[in-house]
Write a structure and sequence with these properties.
The complex is a heterodimer of chains A (539) and B (330). Chain A is mostly helical and 539 residues long. Chain A has 22 helices and seven strands. The radius of gyration of chain B is 28 Å and the shape is elongated. Classes of the chains: A mainly alpha (539), B mainly alpha (330).
Chain lengths: 539, 330
C-alpha cells in the first residue's frame, strides 16, 4: 500500500500548471494509479493483449497496430452511441462542471475537471474525425493520438468514478461517465485495464461473484451469519440455495458476504426475509449483484449481467429481488432489460406480503429491496422498535448510481425514518441528485490508489463532518456495498468516530421478530441505548 | 494563443470587407454573393449535422435522473427532473432549453484550510447565458423588419417592448445593451477565471469576438453613423425575394456587419455553436427514466459468450454435492 499523508498534511493545491494541458505530461506518482490487469484475468474474460506490464514502464507493450485499433474502435463507437457522438461535438467549455467533480476538488489536478477529462478524448476525435481538426490541428483543439495520450487516458479514465455528478450540472447533459466508460472500453482494446476491475470481473465470470467465492464456501459463509443471528436473538434461520420453485430469487453484491460492515446488512436481509416468511432462494451461480464488467466494457457488463435472468429462468422463480448496491442498480435500471431481456419468463413483481404490484418494475421484473421494505412498512407489516437504534445518530449518503441513474431517493429515507429516531440530513447540495461520490466507485476501491481515493472522498466526508459536528452524527447509512467498504476507510481518515451501515442493518436492529429473546446489543454486538451495563450477558 | 489569434481573425474579417468594398469594388460580392453562400452553408450544414447525429442509434436509456423516480404510489415523483412519461420529458426539455435548468443548479466551491469545503451561490453564468441568448433572440426577431413587407405584428411588438426606455433618438433598445454586457461578461470570465481560461480554446474565443463585432457594428450603425435603413431594407428584400439589387451609398460599416453575420452563419454548423441542435438530442436529458417499465431496444444488441450454469456446475459439481447444494446432473 502506498504511504499516505495525514489529513492535515495532505496538500490540496488548485494552482494551475504553467504549461497548457496538452503539454503537461502525466506523473505516475504512487498512490494515484491502480495496478494493471493481470494476464490470467484478461484471458478468462477473453480480453485482448494479456501481458505483464506496469504503468511506470516506458514501454507498455501495446500491440503493434495499437493506433489503428484505437482509432478504429473510436470510429465504431461513434457510429454506435449517439451519446458519444453528441458529447464529442457540443461541449462549449463553459466550465460549469469543473468544480462539481470530487476528484478535481480533492486533487486540484485540472485534468480532473470533467471538461478536460472529456477533452482528452475529444482532442483525438477532432484530429481524426473532424474537418476543422484535420486542417487547423492544435488551433482547433486537436492533437495526434500518441502513446503518451494513451498513458494519459489510462491515468484519468481510471481516476473517474463514473458518478455522473458533472452530468447533472451540464447544460447539455454531457455525461463524463459515458466518456469514461467508452474511454475504458477503448483502452481495453489494447489491453490497458486495472486488476481491481478485471480481477473481480474474471472471478464473477467463472465463480459467480467478484470475490471468487465457490458455491460450497458461499453457503458456508451465509450459514455463518445464521449462527451469528441465533446468538443474537435465539432465532434459527434456514436460508435455501439454488432452490427450484422458489417464488423469488434474491441477488445482492458479494461484498456483503465477505467484509464488515456489509455483513451486518446481509444479516439484516436474512432476518427480514425470515420474519415475513418470504419464499425466496439464494443462488451460488448468480451470487453477485454488482457488475465490474460495467467498468470494463459494455460487452463484459452484458456477459456478467446475463446470469441474473439465466438463473431466474433455470430456477423458475416469478421475479427477482435485488439487494442494496449502487452500480448494480444502474445496470439493472438502465441496461439489463435492454441487454439481456425481455424477461418474458418472469411475472410482474407482486409483494407476497402486501399484495402491492410493482408497476415501476413491470418489464425488468426486478425490485429493489429498499422499495420492497418501504412497502412493507407502509402497509404495517413489520413490527419495529426504532429505539433499538437510539445509540446511533444517523445520516444518509445517496449512492451516485441509485441517485443519478435511477432517482432512488425517498424510499431509503422513508425506511430509515421508520427504524431510527435520530436522523439528520447533510447539506442540500451534497445529497440526493447532488450527492458526492464516496471517491472509490467504478472499481477504484483498491489500496494502492488510497491517496487519490481519500482526496476524492473529501467532499463527501466534509459534509459528514458538518453533521457530525453539528448534530453528533456517528453513523453514515447507505445502500451501496462499495460505499460500505470504502466510506469506512474514508470516515476513519477524515471524520473518525463515524461508522458506516447499510439501511437493512438498521432495519434488522429495529425489527421485532416473533419468538426472539430480548436484545441487549445491536447486530454488531454494541450495547443498545440503556443497556450499556449488560453488554456481556449474551457472550 | 487562442485569445489574440481569435481577435486578430475577427479584425481581419472586418479589414477584408473594407478592402473589398472600398478598394476592390466588391460590394456586390459582399452584399449579395456572400449572404447566399452563408445561408446555404448554414442550412445545409445544420441539416447535415442533425442527420449525422440522428442516424446514430441510442443503444441504452441513460437519463441523468435529477429527482425522485416514479415509484410506489405514495412516493411523490419529481416529474420534471426525473420524468417517466413523454409529457414529463417535454417539460424537462422545455425547462432545459428555455430556462437552462441544469446551469441554474450551478454552485461554486471554495476550499478553506482544514481542509474544509464550502459551496457558494453562483448564478452569474446562468444569468449571463440567459441574458445573452434571449437578447440575441430578440435582436434576431427585430431584424425581421428588414426582411418582411408588411412587417408582421410580433416584430413591431418586440420593437415596442424592447424600446420601452424611450431614451435618445433613435430610441435605445434594451437588448442592445444587455447583449453587449452579457457577451462581454462571457468573454471576461474566460479571460479572468483561471480554470475557465485553462480549458478555453480558440474556438471558444472566436465566436465571442465575432458576436462582439456584430453587436458593436450594429450599434454604431443605428445610433451613431445612422445607416440608411431604407436602402438596407431594399437590399434585404432583394435577397429574400431572390431578386437581388445593390442600392448605392450604403456605408462600409453595414458591409462589415453583414459579413460578420454571414461568417457566424457559415461557421455555425461546424462549431460548438451546434449545441443549439445537440441539446435536443442529448440522451441524458431527452429520454424518460422508464426502462424498468418498458424495454428499451438496442438495434445492435448482439449475443455474447457467457459462462453458463451448466459450465459452472460441471466445474463445481463435486463440491456442490458435498455441500448439499442441489445439482442438475448427479
Amino acid at each position: 500500500m502506498a504511504k499516505i499523508p495525514k489529513p492535515n498534511e495532505l496538500v490540496i493545491d488548485h494552482t494551475l500548471p504553467k504549461t497548457g494541458w496538452m503539454d503537461t505530461p502525466v506523473d505516475f506518482r504512487p498512490g494515484t494509479w491502480c495496478y494493471p490487469g493481470k494476464a490470467k484475468n484478461l484471458e478468462v474474460l477473453g480480453l485482448p493483449n494479456p501481458r505483464e506490464w506496469s504503468p511506470t514502464d516506458e514501454d507498455w507493450k501495446l500491440p503493434e497496430n495499437w493506433k489503428e485499433i484505437l482509432l478504429e474502435g473510436l470510429r465504431e463507437r461513434l457510429d454506435k452511441f449517439r451519446s458519444l457522438k453528441i458529447f464529442m461535438d457540443i461541449c462549449v467549455r463553459c466550465g460549469a462542471c469543473a468544480d462539481k467533480c470530487h476528484f478535481f476538488i480533492g486533487t486540484g489536478d485540472p485534468k480532473n475537471m470533467p471538461v478536460l477529462r472529456a477533452e482528452l478524448l475529444r482532442s483525438v476525435y477532432r484530429n481524426d474525425f473532424t474537418t476543422a481538426g484535420k486542417i487547423l490541428g492544435k488551433f482547433a483543439g486537436a492533437r495526434e493520438l500518441t502513446k503518451d495520450v494513451v498513458k494519459e487516458w489510462f491515468y484519468y479514465f481510471f481516476q473517474c468514478t463514473e458518478c455522473r455528478r458533472c452530468s447533472l450540472f451540464c447544460p447539455y447533459g454531457i455525461d463524463t461517465a459515458e466518456i469514461t466508460i467508452i474511454g475504458r472500453e477503448l483502452l481495453n482494446l489494447v489491453g490497458c485495464n486495472i486488476d481491481w476491475v478485471v480481477g473481480p470481473a474474471a472471478n464473477c465470470f467463472m465463480n459467480g461473484n467478484h470475490l471468487g467465492i465457490q458455491p460450497h464456501a458461499f453457503k458456508d459463509m451465509i450459514e455463518f451469519f445464521v449462527d451469528e443471528i441465533e446468538a443474537l436473538n435465539g432465532i434459527r434461520i434456514e436460508p435455501t440455495f439454488n432452490r427450484k420453485g422458489a417464488e423469488i430469487l434474491f441477488i445482492t453484491p458479494s461484498g456483503d458476504v465477505f467484509a464488515d460492515p456489509g455483513t451486518y446488512t446481509l444479516m439484516g436481509y436474512l432476518m427480514l426475509f425470515h420474519e415475513i416468511g418470504l419464499d425466496y432462494t439464494w443462488s451460488t451461480y448468480a451470487s453477485e449483484g454488482g457488475n465490474f464488467g460495467f467498468f470494463t466494457s459494455h460487452e463484459t457488463m452484458k456477459k456478467l449481467n446475463a446470469k441474473m435472468y439465466a438463473e431466474a429462468k433455470r430456477l423458475g422463480v416469478k421475479w427477482i429481488l435485488g439487494g442494496e448496491c449502487g452500480h448494480m442498480w444502474r445496470v439493472v435500471n438502465q441496461y439489463m432489460d435492454t441487454m439481456n431481456g425481455p424477461a418474458d419468463f418472469l411475472e410482474q413483481p407482486v409483494s407476497p406480503i402486501t399484495g402491492t404490484r410493482f408497476d415501476n418494475a413491470r418489464s425488468t421484473k426486478m425490485v429493489h429491496l429498499v422499495e420492497f421494505t418501504a412497502d412493507l412498512i407502509k402497509n404495517g407489516k413489520l413490527k419495529l422498535d426504532p429505539s433499538r437504534n437510539d445509540h446511533q445518530i444517523v445520516t444518509y449518503h445517496d449512492s451516485c448510481n441509485p441517485a443519478r441513474g435511477m432517482g432512488f431517493m425517498d424510499e431509503p429515507r422513508y425506511v430509515i425514518e421508520n427504524v431510527c429516531n435520530n436522523f439528520y440530513e447533510m447539506p442540500p447540495n451534497t445529497i440526493r441528485e447532488q450527492t458526492f461520490c464516496c471517491g472509490s466507485g467504478s472499481g477504484l476501491n483498491t489500496d494502492e490508489f488510497l491517496e487519490t481515493r481519500m482526496r476524492g472522498g473529501l467532499p463527501r466526508a466534509n459534509a459528514v463532518k458538518y453533521v457530525h459536528d453539528k448534530h453528533g452524527v456517528n453513523m453514515l447509512s447507505t445502500i451501496c456495498a462499495i460505499d460500505r467498504a470504502v466510506l469506512t476507510a474514508s470516515m476513519d481518515y477524515w471524520v473518525p468516530g463515524v461508522g458506516v451501515t447499510g439501511v437493512h442493518e438498521l432495519v434488522a436492529n429495529a425489527l421485532v421478530m416473533e419468538g426472539e429473546t430480548e436484545r441487549t446489543t445491536d447486530l454488531r454486538g454494541e450495547p443498545l441505548a440503556g443497556m450499556e451495563d449488560s453488554d456481556n450477558e449474551d457472550v | 494563443m487562442g485569445i489574440e489569434s481569435s481577435l486578430i481573425a475577427v479584425i481581419a474579417l472586418a479589414a477584408m470587407v473594407v478592402l473589398g468594398v472600398k478598394v476592390a469594388g466588391l460590394a456586390y460580392f459582399f452584399g449579395v454573393v456572400v449572404p447566399y453562400i452563408a445561408i446555404f452553408t448554414f442550412l445545409a450544414g445544420f441539416v447535415y449535422r442533425i442527420i449525422g447525429w440522428a442516424r446514430v442509434p441510442v443503444p441504452f436509456r441513460i437519463p441523468t435522473t435529477g429527482g425522485q423516480q416514479y415509484s410506489l404510489p405514495w412516493v411523490k415523483q419529481n416529474k420534471l427532473d426525473n420524468p417517466s412519461t413523454t409529457a414529463g420529458v417535454i417539460g424537462r426539455m422545455a425547462l432545459e432549453v428555455l430556462a437552462f435548468r441544469s446551469l441554474f443548479r450551478n454552485t461554486k466551491f471554495q476550499l478553506i484550510d482544514g481542509p474544509k469545503i464550502v459551496y457558494q451561490w453562483e448564478k452569474w453564468l446562468w444569468m449571463a447565458a440567459l441574458a445573452f441568448h434571449y437578447s440575441f433572440l430578440v435582436i434576431f426577431i427585430r431584424h425581421f423588419r428588414f426582411f418582411t413587407e408588411p412587417v408582421p405584428f410580433f416584430v413591431h411588438m418586440t420593437e415596442r417592448v424592447d424600446g420601452l426606455l424611450q431614451l435618445g433618438l433613435p430610441g435605445v433598445y434594451l437588448t442592445d445593451l444587455v447583449f453587449i454586457v452579457a457577451v462581454t461578461y462571457l468573454l471576461l470570465r474566460r479571460l479572468i477565471l483561471p480554470q475557465v481560461k485553462y480549458i478555453s480554446l480558440p474556438a471558444d474565443y472566436f465566436p465571442l469576438f465575432l458576436l462582439l463585432g456584430l453587436g458593436i457594428s450594429g450599434i454604431f450603425m443605428r445610433y451613431f453613423t445612422k445607416v440608411d435603413v431604407v436602402k438596407v431594407k431594399e437590399l434585404a428584400m432583394g435577397l429574400v425575394t431572390f431578386h437581388p439589387t445593390l442600392p448605392e451609398g450604403i456605408g462600409v460599416l453595414f458591409y462589415i456587419h453583414l459579413f460578420l453575420v454571414c461568417t457566424l452563419f457559415a461557421y455555425f454548423p461546424f462549431s460548438k455553436l451546434m449545441h443549439l441542435g445537440g441539446v435536443f438530442l442529448s440522451p441524458t436529458r431527452n429520454l424518460p427514466n422508464d426502462s424498468r417499465m418498458h424495454r428499451h431496444v438496442n438495434p445492435w444488441n448482439y449475443p455474447v459468450k457467457t459462462h453458463t450454469y451448466a459450465e459452472y456446475e460441471d466445474h463445481f459439481r463435486e463440491k456442490m454435492i458435498e455441500a448439499g447444494l442441489p445439482v442438475e446432473k448427479e
